[in-house]
Design brief:
Blueprint lengths: L13 E7 L2 E8 L6 E5 L13 H4 L4 E5 L16 H14 L5 E6 L1 H12 L4 E7 L17 H8 L4 H15 L9 H13 L2 H19 L12 E6 L11 E3 L2 E9 L6 H4 L1 H8 L3
Parallel strand pairs: 3-4, 3-5, 5-6, 6-7, 7-9
Antiparallel strand pairs: 1-2, 2-4, 8-9
């Protein structure tokens, strides 16, 4: 049974709740306090625990910082503030509150999107960026298969039925997006989704904002004319529909950005291929 008051245990991890820019954020911490900081940011429908396979190794040489996004895990879940620019603001404010000037940022899913926005907005704050399982803003073309993704996002974003969908769909999406490395156990599904079921406004806000305010501007190239100044490696799964438009290798007109592919993997790289992710984010 997952406790909504106490986060799950991971060896070497301690927990703090930090007030930053009006949001009380839960942060899992590991490693020496004076080591180079690495920020690990999960996506939906997960929480900080998604990084559990990487934390022990990373913590031997780094100060590992794993926050829960607003509305996720053990952070506050207000009714509003789920646009992705605000998620970025939350995370930069958290670093300010912790007195951290510059980090290596690894993000999965929406945590990757926030990292890309942060790199465009405040490149001096990020030493190195690793977006995982997220379509970067400079992809060419649109794969019509990605329209299937709206099949779960639309009902979540709707009035009235959105909260019911937000409680029901996360386990199904976790199962559907995995292509490698076995299946999620019942315990894993529960640890990821129990906090979201208890506070569905986070899921609803995340996707209602995306569908109604962000999707069209992003497709029209909201960030396409901006240039990355941070060295960035985007890691994607070969079988992940979310990133189906991305081509491996260097990205045209973005000399700091390249894309690597994990053979046979789907969307949940932290569970499907943690050793590969660890090798990439520690390669320098």
């Amino acid at each position: 049974m997952v406790s909504l008051q106490t986060p799950p245990d991971v060896r070497g991890v301690t927990h703090e709740w930090i007030d930053a820019a009006g949001l009380r954020t839960h942060v899992a911490l590991a490693g020496p306090e004076d080591a180079p900081p690495m920020l690990l940011v999960h996506g939906w429908p997960q929480n900080w625990w998604a990084w559990r396979h990487l934390i022990p190794t990373l913590a031997t040489t780094r100060r590992v910082i794993c926050p829960d996004l607003r509305g996720h895990g053990w952070s506050d879940a207000p009714e509003h503030g789920y646009d992705k620019e605000q998620l970025t603001t939350d995370l930069l404010a958290l670093l300010d509150a912790m007195g951290i000037e510059r980090v290596t940022w690894a993000g999965h899913d929406w945590g990757a999107g926030a990292g890309l926005i942060a790199a465009l907005r405040a490149p001096d704050r990020i030493e190195r960026l690793f977006p995982l399982a997220f379509p970067h803003f400079w992809a060419r073309g649109f794969d019509p298969r990605r329209l299937a993704l709206l099949g779960y996002q639309v009902p979540i974003s709707l009035p009235v039925v959105g909260r019911a969908a937000a409680r029901r769909l996360p386990p199904a999406m976790l199962k559907a997006g995995r292509a490698k490395g076995g299946r999620f156990t019942d315990e894993e599904l529960e640890t990821y989704t129990a906090p979201l079921r208890a506070r569905p406004q986070g899921t609803v806000g995340l996707y209602r904002t995306f569908i109604t305010r962000e999707l069209v501007p992003w497709l029209r190239g909201r960030y396409a004319d901006q240039r990355l100044e941070v060295r960035t490696t985007c890691l994607i799964g070969e079988k992940d529909l979310v990133t189906a438009t991305l081509e491996p290798g260097p990205v045209a007109n973005q000399p700091e950005l390249e894309v690597d592919v994990v053979d046979g993997a789907g969307h949940w790289l932290l569970d499907e291929a943690p050793e590969t992710v660890l090798a990439v984010v520690t390669a320098g």
